[in-house]
């Protein structure tokens, strides 16, 4: 189930002119405030009618202005999750979930019991929305959207109203939805930890234009993308090898060992790790007698100037790694494309919410959609 969007619209002071295609999985629309992310989502939802546009979800044409096609929102079969959940306040959780089910076309939608289990909302069924926490409300909103048997889930910054602890709590549920149900998702976010954990594809939008689209790991490791600001970081995939008695989990990525503390994963599990650029030091030689456990040799691929320093992209056997260092360090290290350098990652710096499970291989997702 893929997504194809082409839009041209002028609001007067602001115009959107972009086109992209995204494969199955979670497509994250990212970019600065006011870039046009919500406008794209609203156009897909049918909540705004573009002057020119063609929007196709999984082979179904939802909008085609050249042919006068513009399906109304309720005929698009899209499950929408807003920032604030928007549950029906006078209905219990169970009734809210059933409401989604009620309007779903028969067949095809996941069994309600599976969705309830997957989102951990079984104990909440008889509660009223006013008695739910923000995170619980969002889980119910996602459940309601899934039970309407949607072609696609549209989520507009669904976690932005939650504090960091609640965000970290809800993430595993979203990952389960992504990995088990293979319902495609279009997800608006400008928070890079969210993007890193969930995205299959990232479409970066700036000033109403598409700046970049590609597989999440590639887009996140592109040092030219200053939008990530101080949150820049690379994504690598690793496999758990062992859990050691001292609490460290040993992983392997591209043949290199990596160690992470307090990781709830078993040997054989494949994980996505996000390594923040600010947590990576660079050295010209492989250091000895150093407390850091994660040391990755590599070659400089690119160096880009950023406010307050430079971002160095290193090709390593584990995948591309980003490092943010000062101009002075870059000069001292002679960090230039082609130079060998070693990345030193402090093992304790991997934030728990930055560790996510990998998405399914696209071929698996293809088979199920
Ligand atoms: N109906 C409208 N009429 C006029 N201008 C609009 C309308 N809808 C959106 N805009 C303008 O389009 C621009 C993009 O808005 P949009 O909400 O799509 O951005 P965004 O990337 O989602 O931003 P944020 O991250 O802050 O939510 C803004 O400048 C906004 O004022």
Number of domains: 2
Bound chemical compounds: adenosine-5'-triphosphate
Might you state the CATH topology name of the largest domain?
A: Rossmann fold
**Structural class by secondary-structure content:** alpha+beta
Task: Give the low-pLDDT segments.
Answer: 348-354, 357-369
The percent range for helix content is 10-25%
Distance between the termini: 6 Å
> Which CATH first-tier class of the largest domain would you pick?
Alpha Beta
**Gyration radius, rounded:** 22 Å
Overall outline:
globular
> What string gives the helices and strands in order?
EEEHEEEEHHHEHEHEEHEEEEEEEEHEH
Oligomer: single chain
Description:
With 369 residues, this protein is of the alpha+beta class. The protein has two domains: 3-221, P-loop containing nucleotide triphosphate hydrolases (Rossmann fold, 3-Layer(aba) Sandwich); 233-356, OB fold (Dihydrolipoamide Acetyltransferase, E2P) (Beta Barrel). It is 23% helix and 35% strand. The chain contains nine helices and 20 strands. It has helices spanning 37-45, 93-102, 112-118, 134-147, 164-181, 192-198, 216-220, 327-333, 362-368; strands at 3-10, 15-22, 26-30, 52-57, 60-64, 69-70, 78-81, 152-156, 185-188, 201-206, 209-215, 233-243, 248-253, 256-261, 270-276, 280-283, 294-306, 309-316, 319-325, 340-345. The strands form four sheets. Strands 7-8-9-3-10-11 form a six-stranded mixed sheet, sandwiched between helices. Helix 2 (93-102) packs parallel to helix 4 and helix 4 (134-147) packs parallel to helix 5. The longest helix has 18 residues, at 164-181. It is globular, with a radius of gyration of 22 Å. The chain binds adenosine-5'-triphosphate (ATP). Adenosine-5'-triphosphate binds at residues 11, 14, 31, 33-39, 190.
